[in-house]
Amino acid sequence: MFRSGVGFLALFGFGWWLLATSAFGGMARLVEAVAGCAVTVGLMLAARRVLPASAGGPFPADRRRRFNQVNGVQWLLIVAIAVVCSRAGAPVLVPPLVAMVVGLHFLPLAAVFEQPRLRVPAVLLVVAGSAGLAVWLMDGSASAVRLTVGLLAALTLWGMALRTVAGAASAAGRGVTE
């Protein structure tokens, strides 16, 4: 499930969903968090049911090294964004900029995994970050920025997880082994 990417997509989608729901308070936030948790668990259970245990297979050493490099750079950039934005007094910019970095990290991963379909979340996450920046530039509140970025990013990642599961289910229905 995690090798196929569904587990990561579902869990990181949930993280973005929690960011989006931080725009709400009280019972509404609790209900939204529970709904997001249900989506995440549902995707992971569907992946476990539909995807073969070997989905994605083990990484060859060269791919594992490249994957680690891409993710290492991504996390360094995320930390740098958080530090710079905090010191500059603009923490509101952290979510949009992080979404853009996460989106861009999917481009080299598309090559690493030989999965051109990963370009879709790359573009959509950059759009999510850009939308958040647009909300901020139009004097939107920090909660409006978080809601915009978090919602778009969560839907992007969950949508990609669903596409992966649905594709595997469709292939299995046709008797195709991946």
**Quantity of strands, as a count:** 0
- Uncertain runs are none
Based on secondary structure, the structural category is mainly alpha
**How many helices in DSSP terms?**
6
Report on this structure:
- This protein has helices spanning about 5-20, 25-50, 60-85, 95-110, 120-135, 140-175.
- Helices cover about 80% and strands about 0% of the residues.
- Helix 3 (about 60-85) runs antiparallel to helix 4 (about 95-110).
- The relative contact order is 0.17.
- The protein is built from six helices and no strands.
Summarize the entry for a quick read:
The chain is mostly helical and 178 residues long. Helices cover 78% and strands 0% of the residues.
Describe the protein's topology.
Layout: H1 6-21, H2 26-50, H3 61-87, H4 94-112, H5 119-137, H6 142-173
Helix pairs in contact: 1-2, 1-6, 2-6, 3-4, 4-5, 5-6
Search tags:
178 residues; mainly alpha; 6 helices
